[in-house]
Design a protein that fits this description.
This protein has 418 residues and is an alpha/beta fold. It has 3 domains: 165 residues, Nucleotidyltransferase, domain 5; 78 residues, Dna Ligase, domain 1; 121 residues, Nucleotidyltransferase, domain 5 (2-Layer Sandwich). The relative contact order is 0.16.
Length: 418
Amino acid sequence: MPNDQIFAGIDIGSCAVRIVVGQRLPVGDKESVHILGAAETVSEGVSRGTVISIEDAVSTVSSCLERVERMTGVPVSSAMIAIPGTHVSSLVSKGVVAVARPDGEIREDDVVRAIEAAQNIATPVNFEIIHVIPKTFTVDSQPGVKDPVGMTGIRLEVDAQIVQGLSAHIKNLTKCVYRTGVNIDDLVLGILAAAEVVVTPRQKELGVAVVNIGGSTTSIVVFEQGDIMHLATLPIGADHITSDIAIGLRTSIDIAEKVKLNYGRAVSKDLTKREEINLKEMGADSDEMVSLKYVANIIQSRAEEILEKVDGELKKIDRSGMLPAGIVITGGGAKVAGLTDLAKQKLRLPVSLGYPIGVTSITDKVTDLGYTTAIGLMQWAMREAEETPARRKGEWSKSKPVEKVTEHLKKWFGAMVH
């Protein structure tokens, strides 16, 4: 199998490192994303999305790479890497240029110059741009233009979403990957990678929020009219639920995690005090009966706190209870039973679990919510390698050369015309 047909995504999280390897498969006259292998290892050297030990992080990633390479029989030479949202900020910037041609016809080069102009912002010290996402264009006094190429005007403006991250954290993360011998195709904000595979363009057009509940953080992205409307990362995640259970039951973190995943529920009202489990079955040293309703009360309290913070982010943009396509919850922390029911109640919106769309697999990892970001990264890598652009609306990292951007624009606009 040619190695250039293999794509990989690496998600280095606080709880686990997950790697997904896949390829394109023809299905009729279309192509499908097929996962060849997926692996995870317990994360070491990473805390709250930040590398705190280079050596431990390199060892963890290397171990995960060995597992996935044994599974697929193919070496991973390059991969897309997820950037956690912990130290990421987002803002909207405007780029304005004069149309170059004397007859006023807007060409791809004009669009590229406008996007470059949008990047000329006062970046905070020690921050660097990760993504530049064009939202809409304005030709002279006509706003809301999606495709300005071929139109006539004197002045071209673009409103672009600038996503920037802390340089030190990005360099430490990339150093870990390079030291494993893997080349980095590109860096992608983790929540955007997850959204890549769990929501449809139609949902993004109507208005939808993707909530990725990780181990130590919860990331949110809100889409409306196909554009990113809001990005946020909350310093609270599924590990906080596990810690609460460990404290409440006076047991170990490992046992608390097993209780959460095997017997935990996010809604306690349907349980009775008579329903119990024996912690010895979970690995405790002696018999100890615990009420499932008590466990559910612990989980519900912390889950409500997370959901209230999510609703607080929606209130900032006046979308609390007002997203037609609702909320899509994904990530390893979304595995708790009953979470969608609680979320519907607290957020007053339709809520569903975010499983990858249009992905096939020889493993059951495609149905594991913890792998969503890694699968999204793999699919992102596939889009980057295509002749058409990586994003439906054009999305580029600052590091990408202008020539590549121009080529993407030509293919993108050509596809839209046809």
